[in-house]
Amino acid sequence: MFDRIVVVDWSANNTPKVGADSIWVAHLDRGGTAIAVNHRTRHRAFEAVLALAAVPGRVLLGFDFPLGHPAGFAARLGLAGEPWAATWAMLADLITDDARNCNNRFEVAAEMNRRLGNLQFWAAPPRLAGAHLTTTRPARGADDLPEFRTVERHLRDQGRYPFSVWHLLGAGSVGSQSLTGIPVVERLRHHPSIRDRVRIWPFETGLRLPTGHDRIVVAEVWPSAIRFDHVQHPVKDARQVIALAQWLAEQPADVFAPPAANSPTVLAEAIVREAIVREAIVREEGWILGVT
């Protein structure tokens, strides 16, 4: 399906870092061997991914953080337009992230909690905690947005346990990666060198593979979903992105179109319910490529 596959293991580190728990970018060209490169900062990673994407042909860019939020997030913030796009634009406007990885993600999370009227985002360093952002998980209230997106609930039903986008700090948390990563993807999709070729799956494409011979497809991925013990590399993160790039290269186009959960013989009520869920996925929540 693709001439080049790029898989990005993101990091929300506050300082430049290499090795484990830093940014690793793997790329695999058609007929080639997957290569993983470590990047000290998000600025360097942006430039590297842009260069990898700006080649002729079909390119897949996979990012390992949530590209969407549970349905209702944008509306609760009072954002107008397509929920996913309005949220991306807001985060790109609010998040500052300099060349040394210094960023304001916890301040932005606190401000969003203030606007939401509840403690949706949680887990901050003690020095940055306050009335609108706590160090520990608060008790959930009746007015809270869902803790997980549809795809995460589906994975948890299968016995796999992805973290919530609201969880900002601690082992396995992905909220900070999303807050720092979405503005980077927003910059990529508007960059003049590639913007005419970029399509965000499934927000701009629907739950299908976009057509075109010169296309860049951006998708959310989850490296932990596949085995990686066959890859030889001293750093686990590098093994994971290499393995996922290899796995994606072997998948058919159907991987972009998760099948309906119901058979054609289900009741009309169930069909309507699934249509509502799929609309939420395409307009705000997103999906993880490869999860069916």
Explained architecture:
Helix content is 33%, strand content 11%. It has a 6-stranded mixed β-sheet with strand order 3-2-1-4-6-5, with helices on both faces. α3 (83-94) packs across α6 (175-190). By secondary structure, it is an alpha/beta fold. The chain is globular, with a radius of gyration of 19 Å.
Question: Characteristics of this structure?
Answer:
six-stranded mixed beta sheet, 292 residues, alpha/beta, 6 strands
Quick gist of this model?
The protein is an alpha/beta fold and 292 residues long. It has helices at 42-53, 73-76, 83-94, 105-116, 150-157, 175-190, 236-249, 268-285, and strands spanning 4-9, 23-29, 35-39, 59-63, 198-200, 216-220.
What are the SSEs and their pairings?
Layout: E1 4-9, E2 23-29, E3 35-39, H1 42-53, E4 59-63, H2 73-76, H3 83-94, H4 105-116, H5 150-157, H6 175-190, E5 198-200, E6 216-220, H7 236-249, H8 268-285
Parallel strand pairs: 1-4, 4-6, 5-6
Antiparallel strand pairs: 1-2, 2-3
Helix and strand composition category: alpha/beta
Count the beta strands.
6
User: What order do the helices and strands follow?
Assistant: EEEHEHHHHHEEHH
Unreliably modeled segments? none
Query: How many strands, what sense, and barrel or not for the largest sheet?
Result: 6 strands, mixed
* CA-based gyration radius: 19 Å
Strand content: 5-15%
Give the neighbour order of strands across the main sheet: 3-2-1-4-6-5
Oligomer: single chain
Cα-to-Cα separation, first versus last residue:
19 Å
Give average pLDDT, whole number: 94
Shape summary:
globular
Helix content: 25-40%
